[in-house]
Amino acid sequence: MYPTRLFLLLLSSIIWHAASAQANSAGFEIVGTPTENRVLVLKEGKYGYLDGHNRLVIAPRFDGAFAFADGRAAVMTADTTPGSSRAFWFLIDSSGNTIVNDTFDHVELLYDSETGNEYAFSEGLAYVHRGDQKLVVDLQGRKVLDWKEGWRAPFHFGWIVSGKDSSVGITDRSGRIVLAERYHSITILAKGLAVARKGRRLGILSQQGFSGLKYDDFRHRDDGLLEVVEKGLRGLLRSDGVVLSKPRYTSIGTLSEGMIEIEQKERWGFMDSTGRLRIKPQFASVSGFMNGKTRVSPVKGEDFYINYAGKQVPETYHNLPNPGNLKEAEARLLEVLNDLVQRHPYANGEALHILDTPYQIRNGILSGVTHFTGEQGLVRQRWTVPVSELTEVWLDYNMGLNANDEKAVLEEAVGDGPFRVKATTSWLHMAAPGDGLQARRLAEQLRIALRQLQGFMHR
Questions:
Q1: Which residue, of 22, 189, 343, 346, is most buried by count of CB atoms within 10 Å of its CB?
Q2: pLDDT range class, residue 27, cuts 50, 70, 90
Q3: Bond preceding residue 154 cis, omega within 30 of 0
Q4: pTM of the entire structure?
């Protein structure tokens, strides 16, 4: 988890628990978590809703209720006739107004495992019972279509899994069967894209039709592409089902600037986002492109940089021009480092390390101060290390610098007290940009700036 996200989650949790305490003091029991600026509450056996500011907006008057979704909630009042167990379900808007006067005997709940809430609506549709009828209704409570036996509610991207037991397929919102009900399982990934499994094989349903059961496995990538596996080799499909590359690669890496890392026979190269081979697999390792260049490791020899055509080029990126002198090189390193530490603070446990005094270089010594709040209150930490002793930039979700022979000194001060040496180390922990492509780019920028500076120092 990103430290900044952790901070926001903690802050959100504090605010939410404070609101819960206030609600409890008013006699309300909080049910679930807030959705659409409404939170379900219970008081004296009746359900109502508060808004995001903990104000009562819908008085507790219902015997049953779901959380809001798509601007609607399903609520219930029980039949008070002696001996009756009947319930009357109806739909309300966010102000508590009844949408239709008609009622339902039952409304199917849709459960969200992340929030713990129960909903009636998803994609503007709810699943209800009226007498012997099972219906799919819209936000106005109007029938959209009959709810067939074996449908697995809800709809996802306009499709629903339909069928019985281990013979399932896909039906669309018009009731038309899109994929025959003959597969063991269905995974709907996106609009117009699904995976059907039967036994150990799977097929892809897309705008191109159904591929047939030709693959062994798949992965829906963060870039929206679909990675498929056949006999241990990997290929790529677009979300519309167009094949970019048939399964021929051992591994397929990230997409950066229209270039995708590929591995074949323990050698790495690149294809472009259309699937065309651009740089044949020949390197021991590669990294993502940044500003038209990427760092590669040959099977033998030192790392170097190449462009989209695979030709060797100088390591400096377009947005990091070669500094003209030592002072410019120092300024370049500090600009990259301070921006990184400020925008991507790392967390020690739950305590964020915030940049206090920006890093500076004096007489070849790099130093900077961060602070965090711990059990002792405000704690400041200062790193000090000779630039000449820095060896490499490391990245493993967190990021920092390596130094020779524990030449880096970590000092710590509590409150306004004096700094005292806490440790000497070769491992400087400085930021937490994550483990994605952008983090790799940031690490590469810092690495280049460090090399440029050390190059001037060695002259």
A1: 346
A2: confident
A3: yes
A4: 0.65
